[in-house]
Amino acid sequence: MLSRLMSSSIRSLDRECNCTVRLLDDSEYTCTIQRDAKGQYLFDLICHHLNLLEKDYFGIRYVDPDKQRHWLEFTKSIAKQMKSQPPFTMCLRVKFYPPDPAALKEEITRYLVFLQVKRDLYHGRLLCKTSDAALLAAYILQAEIGDYDPGKHPEGYSSKFQFFPKHSEKLERRIADIHKTELMMCLGTQLFWLSPLLDSLCCKEIEGFTYSNGK
After folding, report:
1. Which residues have C-beta within 8 Å of that of residue 135, sequence separation ≥ 6?
2. What is the pLDDT of residues 169-198, one digit of tens each?
3. What SS3 class is residue 164?
4. What is the per-residue DSSP string for 57-112?
5. Contacts of 107 (CB under 8 A, 6+ apart)
6. CA separation for the pair 164, 214 (Å, rounded)
7. Computed from CA positions of residues 162, 24, 32, 75, in that sequence, does the dihedral angle turn out positive or negative?
8. Disulfide-capable partner of 94 in 81, 116, 185, 208 (CB 3.0 to 4.6 Å)?
9. Which comes out higher in pLDDT, residue 210 or 102?
10. Dihedral over alpha carbons 120, 123, 129, 134 (to 10 degrees)
């Protein structure tokens, strides 16, 4: 009897695997799923965890053993797609920028899209002119530290933040100038959605962007 119970328990464990999903704020969500679970099941778990209702813009991405990135297909088995042994590690990312970002209804959706733009800017995946990049970085700076305060923000204060893979001192000064003079009395994450620049970014698919310095 005991051996049958142990055998049943082992078989049950064999049918389960652990997944860790890295979220856009760099926190992690860990869960146990059945080996035959499909992508949709995991995605629904994450959305429930985040209380994310506007789901259409998001996806789960993973890296295969050959270091190639893929979007998890929700209609297929997770284990068969991963091509590796558990535990599985994946990440939640914005798959498509919303066509009208100002129309997003949920604060959590706006926050996650904001984090994706911030991440893509930092990793050099946004194609935009230097002037537009400076404006986006200034919005991010405003969201991070609020209004410019000469008592709190000495000369060169923006250099503490890394907005791009690399940038010049001239661009850094321009970011600070915009933050000082153009974004006062506004929350960066709110003003961010009013920018016409974001409309041009958000109509594209995430994978299509490359930051171009000086163009």
Report:
1. 178, 195, 197
2. 888 999 999 888 877 655 545 556 545 566
3. coil
4. TEEEEEE-TTS-EEEPPTTSBHHHHH-SPSSEEEEEEESB--SSGGG---HHHHHH
5. none
6. 13
7. negative
8. 116
9. 102
10. 80
Task: Give the separation between CA 19 and CA 10, rounded to whole angstroms.
Answer: 19
At 194, which amino acid appears? L
pLDDT, tens digit (0-9, with 9 covering 90-100), for 20-38: 999 999 999 999 999 899 9
Question: Which listed CATH number (3.40.50.720, 1.20.80.10, 3.40.50.1000, 1.20.1050.10) goes with 101-203?
Answer: 1.20.80.10
Range 14-94 has CATH code 1.10.3210.10: no
Q: Any idea which residue has 């059945």 for tokens?
A: 34
Extents of the domains making up the chain = 14-94, 101-203
215: Cα separation from own chain's centroid: 25
Tell me the whole-structure pTM to 2 decimals: 0.79
Give the C-alpha separation, 95 to 19, whole Å: 20
Q: Give me 124's structure tokens.
A: 């050099």
Q: How are beta strands 88-94 and 16-22 bridged, if at all?
A: parallel
Domains 14-94 and 101-203 share a fold: no
Residue with tokens 């099941």: 41
SS3 breakdown of the chain: % helix, strand, coil, rounded to 5? 45, 15, 40
Phi and psi, residue 17, nearest 5°: -150, 155
